[in-house]
């Protein structure tokens, strides 16, 4: 098994013309969906009558599915009049790289206009909503503050509230709902495109629950009228394997589960697997040669990462694609030890964390984490237990607020 996995991994790294998979590849340790979970989208009997006769807009991407078919394609085939699709980061069909600007277009398959919410505007405009009676939100989230789907949710809710449009949310499980962890962002100077909410790094809510949180906690000037189709047979503690990749660089269940811990490295000198077909399951940098035996070479991969950190350079570091993710579930924590370990191993400590951004004076790492405290603690050599202890006051306060908006048990 080890030799086979190594061979496949080698082929992925050296074969540049393999397209990224849209089907999630389950890891050795991930749990299959055997609990009878039924997503909101799959419970068509609960909302199809509500859609009939209305002009429907839908916020969707490749993770928006009914059964194994695109929600948009399915609803059109069921006689629902979809007049417009709004696509988030990575686009409607999920083939745009991370951070890439996505333009408006017309869907080749259905002919429906697609409005990008990751291009000229992040929030639907009054004109874009004018011919819509009801907006549907159906996107898979992974439960992290720096995963931009919850930003899109807020902008969409704000636009609906301003233009008196109702939002129907087809809820989906959060694969990382078991963990509420990390520092809570409280200072607005750390707000950015990868973090606009005063939550911990992992918030432990589904999209439906987060929408209630946004309404209830005053993020919107005017509350949005929402209707939620809940996930059936679900609680936050039930393991859930995503049926399809939520974005190009989360192409395995292992990556989805490791994402909260490994995405922290995007503000450092460490490559987190972008530029390979195993993103968010490996970590490394050229400067760690001689300290780690595992190595890989990030390259440009269209549709995934065109310009990854350390492009075309051999990186040395940690191979986590077989890491037992049950350990994360059992601890209910983000893994902080890898960040501390690689910082300590990195020869040039001064260049480990990326330099400050000229326009804000805030480092990319701090923007991702939501505070500058963690960076300063790691540099100072503060033990992990003390770092975690410093998070507790904010976490406990957030958990008390979060409890008011939960639709499912922990």
TrEMBL record:
Lineage: Bacteria, Pseudomonadati, Bacteroidota, Flavobacteriia, Flavobacteriales
Residue intervals of the Peptidoglycan beta-N-acetylmuramidase NamZ C-terminal domain: 257-408
Domain Peptidoglycan beta-N-acetylmuramidase NamZ N-terminal: 56-253
Record's protein name: DUF1343 domain-containing protein
Organism: Flavobacterium azizsancarii
